[in-house]
Amino acid sequence: MAIEKVLKLKIKRKAGYLYYLNPNGGVFCMPIESDRAKGRAKAEKVAETSFQREPGYLYFVDAQGDVSRSRL
Question: Can you tell me the distance from the alpha carbon of 34 to that of 2, in angstroms, rounded to the nearest whole number?
């Protein structure tokens, strides 16, 4: 399974946070545990994105803080 970089953002990732792509554009993060389980965690926008998604790919924020994709 090949991973392909789509967009270089170089987001500085913090430990204990989940990073995800919003379908409407943008990269968001939120705590993985504690406040999220109690319903108090709010998603925080960390970057704006603008790229066209193609069907058949899974898009994600990789370890280097860039947007990558992998074929399903």
Answer: 34
What's the burial of 62, exposed, middle or buried (CB within 10 Å: 0-12/13-18/19+)?
middle
* Predicted model pTM: 0.81
Residues 39 and 49: their CA atoms lie apart, in Å, by: 27
DSSP structure string for 35-47: TTTTT----EEEE
Neighbours of 67 (CB within 10 A): 19
- The per-residue pLDDT for range 25-71, each reduced to its tens digit, is 899 998 887 655 666 778 899 999 988 899 999 999 999 999 999 99
The continuous run of DSSP H or E covering 70 comes out as strand 67-71
